[in-house]
Amino acid sequence: MQYAKLTTKGQMTLPKDVREDLNLHAGDRIGFVKVDGRYVLIPKTRNAADLAGILHKPGMKPLTLEEIDDAIAEHLAKDEERIRAGR
């Protein structure tokens, strides 16, 4: 377990290992979320590549690019139909 010491101004320095694990650098923002009585640190500065796979559901097969294109086309066609019908 890593620890940080709180200053009288309420500031702390995250241990180097933690900063490296979270890929944090000077100026990056960190969110704090309370979950079941504990706080979880969430880096607010991320690269798009860091988000790869976050929407994956266990047991769900990945879609091919063709399947993604088809789903988008289907949605756009339904949306166009809705707009033309004045709904």
How would the global form be characterised? Answer: elongated
Instruction: Identify the quaternary structure here.
Output: single chain
Summarize the amount of helix as a percent range: 25-40%
**Number of beta-strand segments:** 2
Run of helices and strands: HEEH
Low-confidence stretches: none
Give the overall average pLDDT: 84
User: How far apart are the first and last residues' alpha carbons, in Å?
Assistant: 56 Å
For this entry, give a set of tags.
2 helices; alpha+beta; single chain; 14% strand; elongated; 87 residues; two-stranded antiparallel sheet; 30% helix
Concise summary:
It contains two helices and two strands, in the order αββα. The chain is of the alpha+beta class and about 90 residues long.
Descriptive account of the structure:
The protein is of the alpha+beta class and 87 residues long. 30% of the residues lie in helices and 14% in strands. A two-stranded antiparallel sheet has the order 1-2. The longest helix has 20 residues. It is elongated, with a radius of gyration of 22 Å. It starts with 15 loop residues before the first helix and ends with a helix. The relative contact order is 0.08.
Describe how the helices and strands are arranged.
Elements: H1 16-21, E1 30-35, E2 38-43, H2 65-84
Antiparallel strand pairs: 1-2
